[in-house]
């Protein structure tokens, strides 16, 4: 029975979450484009919002990029660049620092959203739920760092890497790899896929619209003149020429009224 539950949670559930994430985002973009937004409230508590948003987004981008690079990098490239021990150490240090930055920023955003009654009243239930889920996920990720340090030199990190690659490559019986691993890793993985599951129904869909093309946009400079330039107004008065070129219908109408 334990194997069946493990297979459902870590073998089937990830594909259900990823399918809903992709198809749900596509359906929402096609049917409800006006809801495809982050719903920013930056006009309220601007200073706290600026610090919290910048810290969270910088930290979480490094965390996501580190997960992709650390778990999905080809084995031959990892062995060429570093040893397995160095690979795990880099993941712990970089992921830990980025996670601390992200959770500090997210804590500021949570405090701002829950404490300020103006922001709280304009927040939907899913806005609060998803931000708390993200905080819990970051906290679990940080708690895995000391656990990983305690398991340094064991195959645990390689097992986790093999599991993530197995999910991406659609390998069979990949859930068996997680049997016997520490509970905190399995909870972290389960919550991560759950966030994918609910994302199409929350404001997290705006991650698809991240303006990454701004990085390659050619620069331009706005120049303002100090001259008191006043645009000339167009003369809208009619002359004899305008009246002579008026449509025939207007002429007949005017002639009829005149009669």
Number of domain units: 1
Report the CATH architecture: Up-down Bundle
Q: Which regions have little confidence, pLDDT < 50, spanning 5+ residues?
A: none
Radius of gyration: 29 Å
> Could you estimate the helical fraction of the residues in percent?
55-70%
**Count the helices. How many?**
10
Overall 3D shape? globular
* Strand runs, count: 0
* Class computed from helices, strands and strand pairing: mainly alpha
- Strand percent estimate: under 5%
Instruction: Determine the CATH superfamily.
Output: Transmembrane di-heme cytochromes, Chain C
Distance, first to last CA: 99 Å
Description:
This protein has 259 residues and is mainly alpha-helical. The protein has a single domain, classed as Transmembrane di-heme cytochromes, Chain C (Fumarate Reductase Cytochrome B subunit), CATH 1.20.950. Helices cover 66% and strands 0% of the residues. It has 10 helices and no strands. The mean pLDDT is 82.
